[in-house]
Design a protein that fits this description.
5 helices; about 60% helix; mainly alpha
Length: about 130
């Protein structure tokens, strides 16, 4: 590459399922079967796990009960973030399906992998 050439902007491949940052905004993004986690969230998770490991069984039980018995207002407050994550996941799915289509993968194969009909897959994921 010539020294005066500007490298192409890094492509967004996926986003962290926890904080929402794209792969272009973090050092590392690790892929799981249906989720991604960035190095920053891994570090935070390790801190949380270390703190919870020090908790007594009674403290852990109380924490689980508080989580499960949230008031309706708290649950309603979670919905916007959950909706954003669902939209982000849908965008990731559409991007990966787009790559498959660019490589010549037939809609029948994609629909089969999704467990849906060709028509439903195309309606949901076909780009412009």
């Amino acid at each position: 590459m010539p020294t005066d050439a500007v490298p192409a902007e890094e492509e967004v491949i996926a986003s962290c399922s926890f904080c929402g940052k794209p792969n272009t905004a973090v050092e590392r993004l690790v892929a799981g079967p249906s989720a991604f986690i960035c190095n920053e969230c891994v570090r935070l998770s390790a801190e949380i796990m270390a703190a919870s490991a020090a908790a007594t069984p009674e403290e852990s039980q109380r924490s689980r009960a508080r989580f499960a018995d949230r008031p309706a207002d708290d649950i309603l407050a979670l919905l916007p973030a959950l909706d954003r994550e669902a939209a982000r996941a849908e965008e990731d799915l559409a991007r990966w399906v787009g790559r498959l289509r660019e490589r010549g993968t037939d809609w029948t194969v994609i629909a089969g992998a999704l467990g849906t009909t060709v028509e439903a897959a195309r309606r949901r994921l076909e780009r412009g």
